[in-house]
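FORM 12-B: Structure-to-Sequence Request
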C-alpha cells in the first residue's frame, strides 16, 4: 500500500481554478483569509507551498466543497 502524496502543482492549479470558477479575485481571497498580502496565495497557485490546514478549511467552507476536493494527490 502506497502512502498518498499531495501533488503541490496540481493542487495549486486546482485551487486557482476553483477560485476563478467562483468569480473571486485573489485580493478577495486575501481579505477573506485575513492575510496581509497575496504573496502566499500566489505561492499556493504555483505549487511552491501549501495553505495551512486552517486556511484549507476556510477555503473549503468559502467554496462549498470538502477539503479533499481542494487537494490533488497521488497514491
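FORM 12-B RESPONSE
SEQUENCE OUT:
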Amino acid at each position: 500500500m502506497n502512502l498518498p502524496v499531495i501533488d503541490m502543482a496540481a493542487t495549486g492549479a486546482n485551487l486557482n481554478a476553483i477560485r476563478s470558477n467562483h468569480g473571486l479575485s485573489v485580493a478577495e481571497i486575501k481579505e477573506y483569509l485575513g492575510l496581509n498580502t497575496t504573496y502566499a496565495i500566489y505561492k499556493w497557485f504555483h505549487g511552491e507551498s501549501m495553505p495551512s490546514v486552517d486556511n484549507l478549511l476556510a477555503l473549503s467552507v468559502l467554496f462549498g466543497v470538502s477539503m479533499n476536493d481542494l487537494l490533488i494527490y497521488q497514491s
